[in-house]
Design brief:
Length: 113
């Protein structure tokens, strides 16, 4: 696990009361959460790519990434996949050490419903 991602995972565990378990997979870290949710965190410093997704029942609920498939959005290529299926601009930077602090409150709010 890259050190920036390790820091992000550690921060998430500290700030999210819903963590059940953590799994380091080959290309990402998977955090199992209460209520059947999963948070997948992918970061590749060499390629400059990231994808963070909250998943329930094998379907993405919300997610952030920098895949270059929405070029018309402000802050491109960074974007957010909302619960309603829309794609919106994202203020994430691709640095998981910073990004995690924008992700934590969103995930906590969803699990606190």
């Amino acid at each position: 696990m890259a050190s920036k991602l390790a820091y992000a995972v550690s921060s998430f565990i500290t700030e999210c009361p819903y963590v059940v378990s953590i799994h380091d997979l080959l290309t990402k870290t998977r955090i199992e959460l209460e209520q059947g949710y999963i948070l997948d965190l992918y970061f590749n410093a060499t390629l400059g790519k990231y994808a963070y997704a909250l998943i329930l029942n094998n379907r993405r609920v919300i997610g952030w990434d920098n895949a270059p498939h929405h070029p018309g959005l402000p802050h491109w290529p960074h974007h957010f996949h909302a619960e309603d299926g829309t794609v919106k601009p994202s203020s994430l930077t691709g640095d998981p050490e910073q990004d995690i602090f924008q992700i934590i409150p969103v995930v906590n709010a969803i699990l606190n419903r």
